[in-house]
Fold:
Amino acid sequence: MMPNPAVSPARDGAGNLLAREWKNAPDRADCLSLPLEGEPGFAWFAGAGELAAGNAEIVNPAPVAQIGSAPCNLQAPWVNNATFDSISATVIDDVVSLGCLVGSNVSNIGNLSNGDTTDSATFQMTGLNCDATLSVEDTNDTYPAGTYAGFKVSSDSLLDVSVGFDVTIETWNGGALQESQTVVSSLVGVDASLLDGSGDVVLGFVTAQDFDEVRIVYEAAVGVLVTGEVYYAVVEPFCAGDPLPCNMTTSMTAPDYPVVIDSEHTGVGAAACIGCSVTGVEKVINDDETDAAAIVLTAGVLDASGSIAVQDLLTDYAAGTFAGFEIENTGLLDLSLLQGITVETFLAGVPKESVTGSGSLLTVATSLLSGGGRMTVGFITTQSFDEVKLTVSNPVLGVDLGSTLVYRALFKSLCELNLSCDQTYYLSEPDFPVIIDSGLTGVEGVACVGCAVDDSAAVISSDQNDFATITMPAGVAASGSIAVFDPIETFPEGSTAGFTIRDANGLLEADLLDSLTVCTYNDGGEQECSEGGDLLNVSLLLNWGATAGLQDVGFKTTLPFDEIRITVDPLVNAGLGDNEIEVYSAFLDTRTATGGDLFCRDTDGDGIRDNVDADDDDDGIPDIQEGDGAVDTDSDGMPDSLDLDSDNDGLNDVDEGGDGGLDANNDGRINSADVGFADGDSDGQADASVDVNEEPNSDGDGVPDYRDLDSDNDGINDVAEAGYGAFDGDNDGMVDVSGTNDSDGDGIQDGVDGAPGVFGDAADPAPLDTDGDGIPDYRDQDGDNDGIPDSEEGSGNVDTDGDGVPNSRDLDSDNDGVNDVDEGGDGALDTNDDGQINSDDTGFADDNGDGQADASVDAEEEPDGDGDSVPDYRDLDS
Structure:
């Protein structure tokens, strides 16, 4: 450092000190860094005292480039303006060499640095070995490696296949050449895709060395007239963009990200294609979402192609990131033409992965949604990358794809959401890393005019007003589908999966459901489906938006899955017209989930999860005795441990299991709503129902009554003896099942369920006990106490006199005025002549408690006075 009292700090017109940052300045807290009057490139350092010539010290540190004031990730004209100063332009070489007929004749060189970006320097030259070298230099600053350097020039004469001259961009520092790159050769012209809207082009490269000067060199290779216009030098500093937000589709555009168009991977393919073009590629990386580049392919050229590649210069993106493009072309709605779409990734210029066609490409949500072919195509990477390339080719000869608009490259970082119990989740951004699976989305079937799946990406949008539309005209042999895929998480079985939709036609629910199918998939394979009347109109914990008429359709899964698909068919009744369904979102409800690490199901709602609840359905029978989910006696899809009527005979398990007395409110469950309920150990089972005895087995056949369709083995099914015979049309001993006959999924069929919309029964009557002996008919060997075993009186459908009362409950089965007890030969046991043998009669005994008087039990058939094989109690002419 050298004192120099002769210099003074520079000041502005008002006398204020002009401060500026310099690099490599001495580390002194008491110093100021100031430009000096008449001393460009030097700094003034003053101590704590008054700024005066007497304490000035002069140093010559390397200055920080003015590029620090330029906006990141945007090309800046390198001219004297508010951002840059000390920019000078000079002609380095326009000397006539041997073979050069006319020198470069450079005019208006000052226009390169004067701040007016609309004017230009010009030159012309003729003959071999002619060259023109134009230089722009910052006389004060050095610019760091990694900065883009180049020139904006007119494309005139640069577009021909053979232009006849080379164009080279050079960088210099301190008068020494640093780097050189030929950007136009005499054999290959500029690709038209790189031109801006004015037909001009920026030529340059990203530097690897510091520089303070950029030169453009035109060198003639043939003896032709060469003219050119150079507008200004261009520099661009690059700054890393923010990390990709979780599960949000991110536009890879400047200035948010340091992206450039990779000219080596952009343009029309090698196949000769007259009329094919790629134009406006810089629009793909600007921040206007409505701007688009265009790839145009002519119909007559098979395998013609056009490509656009976008590279992030500073960031490598991890495997598992979605990479793709937003494009638009109504012709691409035909799935066969999607086979001509390829998305490819690169890392440091090296190809990494490539995916082609509708079966592999995926779709993410975008902020602009419209019908008519605007869509996203891409894939989930398995290798890291820094560049993504779109190629559109013509896979079908003679098909005119027209213009494919390319709006922007899109990346999406996929992050898993940890699921919780008792939640309704809508599978949308940014909560879930969801993708639209194009392989399972679209129209399938024969060629269909009017069939459409529009705006599929809206289904995973966070905007609750967005929706996709599936339209199926009447009578067509086709269907339309949308599939939502989570590539990270597998959802647990037992959860409810489906879609929130709106019927645009105002159909009756039955007509609507008949046209819908919802399926789940896992790792690309179909898991299970539900359709028509089997689909539930699900009640969720929260609603998707406030749109009127929304419905939640889905089903309770039994297998794990990572993808949900809805398919819409034409209406069965063609007279109802076209089927138009708005699809808002896919959903997942975990209240009944039982898979993986998420066990949420609490069947009886007692606050104790089924996996730790000793009695999941509160029927008083321990789950371990009911098979703990592994046994389904009546094959209704509901395991006995969750089924309040395990054998579907109309009698609740709580009664057949012997604990009906604890069910004070007769809802089929023993819980806190019953007087006297207690669960002192909080194991989920009422204390009073816990015992070491097995559940009742009235007929001793080894099958407990709650699983036995004829508990007393009297030949009369329990369903009949319970009074529900009318619901057993096929006489199989079970209440008939059809469609949604168990609306609440409690195992009690709606026809015999006092509360078909709530888990459990309501005011369930005590099991029928015709003779009032305290033994219900289904366990009573003589249900009417007439001394004739029920097994002899016949099934519940035998009604000799047709009075609506089956013989097993009829004291005068043939209605002849003579009681069965007398015609059956046991009248002497009916000491009070009331037609029954019971505890009111002298000498009555029923020591085994089977409901039949011991003295009436014998091995002989009932009397048949006339020998006609019809016992007297059924014979009007005995």
In short: The chain has six domains: 1-64, 70-236, 250-412, 424-589, 617-767, 781-878. Confidence is low (pLDDT under 50) at residues 1-12, 16-64, 367-371. The first helix runs from residue 509 to 513. The radius of gyration is 44 Å.
